[in-house]
Design brief:
Blueprint lengths: L4 E7 L3 H19 L4 E5 L3 H7 L5 H9 L2 E6 L14 H11 L4 E7 L12 H4 L3 E7 L7 E9 L2 E7 L4 H16 L4 E6 L5 H17 L4 E6 H10 L6 E4 L1 H14 L7 E8 L5 E7 L16 H13 L4 H19 L38 H6 L2
Parallel strand pairs: 1-2, 1-3, 3-12, 5-10, 8-9, 8-10
Antiparallel strand pairs: 4-5, 4-11, 6-7, 11-12
Helix pairs in contact: 1-10, 6-7, 8-9, 10-11
Length: 383
């Protein structure tokens, strides 16, 4: 039986650094757990533009379509800000999502104990938080036509079109209901049915899918602006939230900051099942390329490690191994941040070791995206 295949696209900035730690875990799983992957690597984003004049080559796109899962690091950087829009690094990521038809974006927001003090909300509001936002990813206002900047009379007008079909809504709703069945069996659908026709259709279709196929799952509906307020007021009332592309973009970043750090969270983008039964899938950390700390050994790899854990769970049916990695990631978050107070100042921690092996405060002066001393090689040996 062939090994599952994984394409690694480390990308730009801190992408190669955080991906290097994931590759250590992949190696450990093969050596210690007998779980092997056929791993290939290629370029995406700015590094692909530097090498080929495009943020994603057709050959790399073909590889992504052929493998069981893609794991991406980060794309972009100020070096590429003046490029034409069509060849900016981010266009490579958008092409992957669009051509692989990755319509369901899973954005977990889990608050590690070590990060609870870093949230802007009270600790009792966020401690133990564990929710998932399911964002429709390939339609809506980001892709609808017509779009563009046009001249009308004596002034310019910018146009973007919010467009959804029944089938596009239904498939992401099913994704959310299936996920809820594996969690706490509760879904909240968010839209703006009070002012948008697309929101009316969204609510109707989600309700139809629920009544026909998922009557066992608790379903509620909420306007997206009210949902944003409730996420700030008492986020633990939610389990799975399903929403469209625009609102999902906003709400998922908002939910991420409830946990104390956008830079510590993973994501998965899933499509329809392939012939193997596995879904088309792209996994990536939520953080950006952080070019200001790239190459300095400061980047915290936890989000990329947890993205790989999501791949183990959703693409490879290795739930126990995913839990093993997730537990190691949570402990790693604690080790990295235990030596800092909530105001960001340093606290001496007697059990903390510097990268050179000496005891001391270690750290980097940049948190919580920066790493302390212990990399995933330490995490792996304790799994």
């Amino acid at each position: 039986m062939a090994n599952p295949s994984l394409l690694i696209l480390a990308g730009d900035g801190i992408g190669p650094e955080v991906m290097a730690e994931v590759k250590k875990i992949i190696g450990w799983m093969g050596a210690r757990r007998g779980i092997l992957f056929d791993v290939s690597e290629d370029l995406v984003g700015g590094c692909a533009y530097d090498a080929h004049g495009t943020p994603l080559t057709d050959a790399t796109m073909a590889k992504a379509q052929a493998v069981d899962a893609v794991l991406l690091g980060a794309v972009g950087g100020p070096k590429y800000d003046k490029l034409d829009f069509s060849v900016k690094p981010e266009r490579g990521l958008l092409r992957l999502r669009k051509e692989m038809d990755l319509f369901s974006n899973l954005r977990p927001a889990q608050c590690f104990d070590a990060l609870a003090d870093f949230s802007s909300l009270k600790k009792d509001v966020v401690s133990g938080l564990d929710i998932v936002i399911v964002r429709e990813l390939t339609s809506g206002v980001y892709f609808g036509e017509p779009r563009g900047i046009f001249k009308e009379g004596n002034e310019r007008v910018g146009i973007n079109t919010q467009r959804y079909t029944e089938s596009e809504i239904a498939r992401v709703a099913k994704s959310a209901f299936e996920l809820a069945r594996k969690r706490n069996n509760k879904v909240c659908s968010m839209e703006k049915a009070n002012v948008m026709e697309s929101g009316i259709l969204w609510r109707e279709v989600v309700q139809e899918v629920h009544d026909r196929d998922y009557p066992d799952v608790e379903l509620s509906h909420m306007y997206a602006d009210a949902g944003a307020m409730q996420l700030c007021r008492w986020p633990k009332q939610f389990d799975v939230i399903v929403t469209d592309n625009l609102f999902g973009d906003l709400l998922s970043d908002m939910a991420a900051m409830l946990t104390g750090s956008l830079g510590m969270l993973p994501s998965a983008s899933l499509g329809a099942p392939m012939a193997s039964g596995r879904p088309k899938a792209l996994y990536e950390p939520v953080h950006g390329s952080a070019p200001d700390i790239a190459g300095q050994g400061k980047a915290n790899p936890i989000a990329c490690i947890l993205s790989f854990a999501m791949a183990l769970r959703y693409s490879f049916d290795l739930g126990d191994e995913a839990t093993r990695v997730e537990r190691g990631g949570g402990k790693g978050a604690g080790r990295r941040l235990a030596h800092r107070r909530s105001d960001g100042s340093r606290r001496r921690h007697p059990g903390h070791h510097r990268p050179d092996g000496r005891r001391g405060s270690g750290g980097t002066g940049r948190q919580p995206l920066s790493a302390g001393s212990r990399g995933p090689d330490r995490l792996v040996t304790q799994m």
